[in-house]
Design a protein that fits this description.
Elements lengths: L5 E9 L8 E6 L5 H4 L2 E8 L6 H15 L9 H24 L7 E9 L2 E7 L3 E6 L2 E4 L5 E3 L5 E3 L12 E6 L5 E5 L1 H4 L4 H10 L4 H14 L6 E10 L5 H8 L13 E2 L2 E9 L3 E8 L4 E8 L7 H14 L10 E2 L9 E4 L3 E3 H8 L4 H19 L3 E2 L8 E4 L4 E3 L6 E2 H4 L19 H4 L6 H17 L30 H10 L11 H7 L15 H4 L1 H24 L2
Antiparallel strand pairs: 1-12, 2-3, 3-4, 4-5, 5-10, 6-7, 6-11, 8-9, 11-12, 13-14, 14-15, 15-16, 16-18, 17-18, 19-21, 20-23, 21-22
Helix pairs in contact: 2-3, 7-8, 10-13
Length: about 575
């Protein structure tokens, strides 16, 4: 059964003995698909008393975080989303504090945030507010106070929002279960109540969260709290978790389309011709009756009607394609009205890069650099969204009639943010295509941006040589040997330093590859002396034709010498 993420929560915040309340806390529970893809978010902030705009800062942080987090791409992980949002808020606080109060400490606040997504709690924290977790009957403080004590009586915050343009935010994640209770407190509460006293109140008032929040605040005030007093409680009632049956039911809400052939119309799209057919899918050129433009209609094969993994990847491809807007990424379009299971993408009049290589043979170094630059532009747009292609190969790159390259086929792409959504359906099978996929991907390990760099390196190598850097192989397991074949062996016009660049890009160890694509592209055009390691380039790599000519002459001389010795009387 597909459960919906559900929580119960309560809060109480009082100024206490102070004139103003500089604390702030709140919870955000989105509607619709965001509840699954982004989860729920909650936070508490305590404006620093020595900061003139501390109260304003705490309100800005809470409102900004709970709004902007849900505006970040669904493909981003919680950690990335939180870091981007808090980094932006921190810079704004620093600038406004200086502008409005003429002080580096004009708008400073502590901040502790929680995101519950699927079956995991993600905690971000800076300052001395606290988050506790009551789990299995025991109370644990899950954040640490960023305080420095200079004497028994004097302390100061070592970290806070708005105090420095460069901040370090604590992050952690931990599994959660229904029944778990999170407690947020400002120092006006936990500085005056011991953890044992807090735990006792939680157990005694467990049946009513609002009564519990009230008791915590009132108890802190009764103990002589000299600060604002705030607390917030969140109890997990249900967690989102899809089973394989849930996935199958979700992705098959739309029926498979009827048999498609030229002349048939479906939802306003008239089929012109079949472009490609395989055991997995069928691809047709169609005319959109609403705009009279040509589009590509792709539908899964009926062979996979009962395969939730395949159908999920089919929809996964559309989900990615509709979230990327880049001239080097095939644009997936939103169907005007859809009654059947298919997706629509732009029509690219051209050919695949694989066909280009068959038609043209070896590319020049200039052509290879140009193609690499375009592929990198497409990959960058994916990587910025924490997406990794995982199946980059010449067949999955189109060249239109203007020479523009476009990446296609995102069915195998890894989306970091979606991996945080728990499911009994997991992609345990290796991703990618043999001979192009990085070794770690073929071993079933997570693919990263350096995995895509490996595939890019293989493609550039093939463009320049017509061969593969490790030769053809039909062994995807770990027993395959990776002995690099120098590119100059197949194309003696390639400079030796370019050969070293290619060797680094396709290194089987991801830690020894290029870490960023811009460095790879730069090195393709500028000799990198550090890759030479101070060692002379082997003669075979520098001049393979000359090497083999000399070798042949030496062999001939040796044979003639042996023949003369044998013929001597």
């Amino acid at each position: 059964m597909n459960h919906k993420l559900e929580i119960d929560y309560a809060f109480r915040s009082e100024a206490g003995v102070k004139e103003n309340n500089d604390d702030c806390c709140d919870v955000a529970v989105p509607d619709g698909p965001l509840l699954l893809s982004k989860g729920i978010a909650a936070a508490i902030a305590d404006g620093v008393s020595s900061s003139e705009g501390g109260g304003h800062a705490s309100q800005v942080c809470i409102k900004g975080f709970l709004t902007d987090y849900f505006s970040t791409p669904e493909s981003w992980t919680v950690r990335t989303s939180a870091a981007k949002v808090l980094g932006s808020l921190n810079r704004w606080l620093c600038g406004q504090g200086q502008s409005l109060y003429d002080s580096a400490m004009g708008m400073v606040t502590t901040f502790s945030g929680l995101v519950i997504k699927s079956t995991t709690a993600h905690i971000v924290h800076i300052g001395d507010c606290r988050i506790y977790l009551l789990q299995n009957g025991g109370l644990e403080q899950v954040t640490r106070d960023h305080r420095i004590w200079v004497s028994r009586e004097r302390e100061f915050l070592s970290r806070a929002m708005g105090a420095d343009p460069h901040i370090e935010i604590d992050y952690q994640s931990r599994p959660v279960e229904p029944g778990d209770l999170f407690l947020f407190t400002s120092d006006g509460v936990h500085d005056f109540l011991t953890q044992r006293e807090i735990e006792k109140i939680l157990h005694e008032q467990d049946h009513n969260l609002q009564a519990c929040a009230n008791t915590l605040v009132e108890s802190a005030l009764a103990k002589g709290s000299s600060d604002n007093v705030s607390c917030q409680l969140i109890r997990v009632l249900e967690l989102s978790q899809e089973t394989e049956d849930d996935i199958l039911r979700r992705v098959t809400d739309l029926p498979f389309p009827p048999e498609l052939r030229p002349g048939v119309s479906i939802d306003g799209y008239r089929i012109l011709r079949e472009m490609h057919a395989s055991s997995r899918s069928e691809v047709f050129l169609a005319l959109d009756g609403g705009s009279d433009r040509k589009v590509v209609l792709k539908t899964p094969s009926v062979n996979y009607r009962d395969d939730p993994a395949f159908l999920d990847r089919f929809l996964h491809e559309e989900w990615i394609g509709r979230r990327i807007d880049n001239p080097h990424i095939l644009k997936v379009l939103e169907p005007r009205r859809r009654r059947f299971l298919y997706n629509i993408s732009e029509y690219v009049e051209g050919r695949s890069l694989a066909q280009w290589m068959r038609d043209h043979g070896q590319a020049s170094l200039s052509q290879a650099r140009g193609f690499a630059g375009q592929i990198i532009e497409g990959l960058r747009s994916l990587h910025r969204m924490e997406m990794f292609h995982q199946d980059l190969k010449p067949d999955n790159i189109l060249i239109d009639r203007h020479g523009t390259l476009k990446l296609i086929d995102f069915g195998s792409a890894r989306v970091a943010g979606l991996e945080e959504i728990a499911s009994t359906f997991a992609r345990t099978t290796p991703q990618g295509t043999l001979n192009y996929a990085a070794p770690e991907c073929l071993r079933g390990e997570p693919c990263t941006r350096v995995s895509d760099i490996y595939s890019l390196g293989v493609i550039v190598y093939e463009l320049l040589t017509g061969r593969l850097p490790y030769g053809e192989s039909d062994r995807p397991d770990g027993r395959r040997k990776f002995d690099y074949l120098p590119a100059r062996r197949f194309n003696d016009t390639i400079p030796a330093w370019v050969d070293r660049v290619l060797a680094k890009a396709v290194h089987p160890d991801p830690g020894r590859r290029y870490n960023v694509m811009s460095e790879f592209l730069y090195d393709l055009s500028h000799p990198n002396q550090t890759l030479m390691d101070g060692r002379p380039t082997p003669w075979l790599e520098r001049d393979p034709l000359g090497f083999w000519r000399v070798a042949a002459l030496l062999l001939l001389a040796g044979n003639l010498l042996m023949l003369m010795l044998l013929l001597r009387p």
